[in-house]
Amino acid sequence: MAEIKTEYYKQNAVKAIGDPILQNALSNVQNRLGPATALCYQKLAEGPDLRLKAHKIREFAVNNLDILLPVLAQKIRDRGGKVFFARNAEAATAYCLEVARENRIKMVVKGKSMVTEEIGLNQVLEANGIEVNETDLGEYIIQLAGESPSHIIAPAIHKTRKEIGRLFTEKLGIPYSEDPPVLTQAARKFLREKFLKAGMGLSGCNMACAETGHITTVSNEGNIRMSTTLPKIHMAFMGMERVTARLEDHDVLFRLLSRGAAAQNMAGYVSYIGGPRTPDQLDGPDQFHLVILDNGRSRILADPEFREALFCIRCAACLNVCPAYGKIGGHSYGYPYSGPIGAVITPLLTGINRAKDLFLGEPLCGACKKACPVDIDLPRMLLALRAKAAYGDHQWAVTRVNPREKFLFEIFSILIRNRKLYDLAMKAGVFFQKWLPRKQGMISHIPFVFKGWTQSRDIKPLARTNFLTLWKNRNQKS
Amino acid sequence: MMPSGNQKKTGEHEFITNIQKALGRPSGSVLPDQSVLTQAPPPDLEHRLSLYCSRNRQDQTKLLDLFMEQAALVNMKVIPVETGSLAGSAVRELILKTEPEWGIEKSVIAWQDPLIEQLGLKEQLASDNVALFITQSSPAPGLEEREEKRRHLLESYIGITTADFCVAESATLVMRSGPGRPRAVSLVPSVHVAVIKMDQIIQSLSELYFRLKFDPKEKEQGLTNCMTFISGPSKTADIELVMVHGAHGPRQMIVYVITG
Question: Which of A253, A323, B4, B191 is the most buried (most CB within 10 A)?
């Protein structure tokens, strides 16, 4: 499993907001990709409503996973590929390690894949003496820096060209440059050696097709094609929900995926891979393995309230429009999945109580739903998670996040139903507030259970005379 | 082909049972209901197929224009030429004026394909100091032969392929792998040159999937074990969102469309 750091959400968010370089990078990403994607949807021949069709396609597939996955597996086996169904992260990484050991693999090259981040594959391989090379430029940069991705499709977006220049000078020994083409060329040269020497290539899977028995991989750099063509073994990892029934489903989904992810008409490279090299072919891997991962997904599937979260095709469009993500960045979410989709699936995968800050921190503004290429109702699910945190939930083993909250609301409920009691409470408030510290006429601190109210903002004092009294007096005068 | 060693448990049964439970379906004995996969051929199948396969010259020219317009957006150069041999001399010119990215020797690798033969590259390059490798292979190439071809590939700075289709709307070349058509030729060399005939240009992704699925001619071959879509040269924007071409794949991509 990836390290879970969701409980540090607040402190990481504060750090992120105080980092001017990160703030600049985040607004750059959002200003460029957010509106560009929206414009792309408008320009679709079918208009933005094509997203509703995509939603139906994904819904149909997820509702039929028990039929689609065995068909996909069988077709791949028919071509000589191997398919392994992994219940959890440990089973998936153990399988990969076993195949690597059987084939005496010392070094692997890897395309960017969120699911391998989720299962912590790199750490397991490295702990067992296998060199792992991330080959997506962004992933490569953060691997050199010893960091984790901060955006689903642009993982190194938090780093400036100056930082990357210094990093390359230090780690690759090249003369300092902050010119993106020069830096890209350096990575190209360095990684080419790795592609040619690696015994195994690892990839994710964007969308499988059950009918034809293929996985697909998508990239713009060509690194995934390199990783899945040159080494003798290709192993792909997919979350169990990433399959569609029919080939023609891919028409709608790929057009929307490319637009959602990078405001492109079509991603640079899309490969349908359905098995190892056939005897008459000159290249391609001799072994092809597909690892299909559950790791908590069947639990999401079982809950009609959250099943929709499995429709996601990981394009990151919701990150590019989210006001919370735009301020706190990907690392604050404390798990590979960030932004609105992360705020929904991370709690469901790692524990709702532990990751409660993720969904409490999202503003419910609805921008993510509009940006989603498959029209997932993320705000609805964020709200549902909040309800679970507020009331507790047996099925998801959620305990009330704040039991005092309920107690206070019960007192409030008594107060507002009793006029005299309410007036008395207000008078008491007016009386006691004069001992509270003030800043420019505002109360800057309230003690005890109320302190949350003034933790990050000042609050207006209660008026000496309330509105009803003012109103009465005014009417008496006239 | 199958890797030897112990038969591993695939974990499939337990995994699928678990999904069935989650979906609230009776688990275990249910036979896969294939109806969710197959779709009856659409009623306008014949009509659509005949439309696709009988485009006249004017329709094809329109598709070529659309392709060129879209290709420009993704930095893919499209050059219409009348005949194969004109394409051949254009490729020769390209080779003469382009310098290799790594090293100084000029080697070029091309698919074994009748359309590429029309270019007459062997004759074109006879008097130049350029090595031309063709990916011809025996019916079941052994390790030695494959490694030799791999060396050729690595020495080459230009890779020449054809394509099965070219989707105009998104400027996408579609290539299926097969004998004599190694996929790395469009990937490893610094420059990728593709040669297609004008009638290989189709309208949309939707047409592509339709033809792959319903056209009896295409259905037979299927998607193969590796079908690749290529829409432009390799690119990245991972450093401050600045677009750079040639991240790992070809830095430059040129498509010659034979219109004659």
Answer: A253
Residue A305 located in a structural domain: no
Chain A touched by B209 (CB under 8 Å):
yes
Number of H helices and E strands in chain A, helices first, is: 21, 12
**DSSP for residue A22:** H
Measure A330 CA to nearest chain B CA, in Å: 15
Q: Band the pLDDT of B26: cuts 50, 70, 90.
A: confident
**A82 belongs to a structural domain:** yes
Q: What is the CA radius of gyration of chain A?
A: 26
Q: Best residue in B248, B251, B253 to probe A by mutation, most A CBs within 10 Å?
A: B248
Question: What is the number of domains present in chain A?
Answer: 2
The partner residue sitting opposite B139, judged by closest CB among A83, A138, A280, is A280
The domain defined by B45-258 folds into Rossmann fold (3.40.50)
The three-state secondary structure class of B219 is: helix
Which residues in chain B have their CB less than 8 angstroms from residue A84's CB? 8, 10-11
Residues A149 and A284 in one domain: yes
pLDDT over threshold 80, residue B128:
yes
Among A67, A223, A284, the residue with its CB nearest the CB of B36 is A67
Among A263, A295, A327, where does a domain finish? A295
B40 close to A (CB below 8 A): no
Residue A369 falls inside a structural domain: no
Q: With CB atoms and an 8 Å threshold, state whether B19 touches A273.
A: no
The answer to whether the CB atoms of B249 and A192 lie below 8 A apart is no
What pLDDT score was predicted for residue B29?
53
Mutate to test the interface with B, among A66, A182, A300 (most CBs of B within 10 A): A66
Q: What is the pLDDT of residue B5?
A: 41
Do A123 and A263 belong to one domain? Answer: yes
Name residues of chain A where pLDDT drops below 50.
Answer: none
Q: Work out the average pLDDT over B139-166.
A: 97
- Residue burial A281-313, b: 16+ Cβ < 10 Å; e: rest: bbbbbbbbbbbbbbbbbbbbbbbeebbbbbbbb
Host domain of residue A211: 44-295
A418 lies in the same domain as A278: no
**Among the three residues A264, A279, A295, which one is the final residue of a domain in this structure?**
A295
A212, two tokens: 């034809």
Yes or no, beta carbons of A222 and B249 under 8 Å apart: yes
DSSP B5: S
> CB distance B149–A212 less than 8 Å?
no
Query: Residue B232: pLDDT above 80?
Result: yes
Q: What share of chain B is helix, strand, coil (3-state, %, to 5)?
A: 40, 20, 40
- Is the domain of A289 the same as that of A427? no
Residue A342 lies inside a defined structural domain of this protein: no
> Is the pLDDT score of B1 beyond 50?
no
Q: Where along chain B do its domains lie? A: 45-258
Contact B228 A270 (CB under 8 A): yes
**Nearest of A407, A340, A391 to residue A367 by alpha carbon:** A340
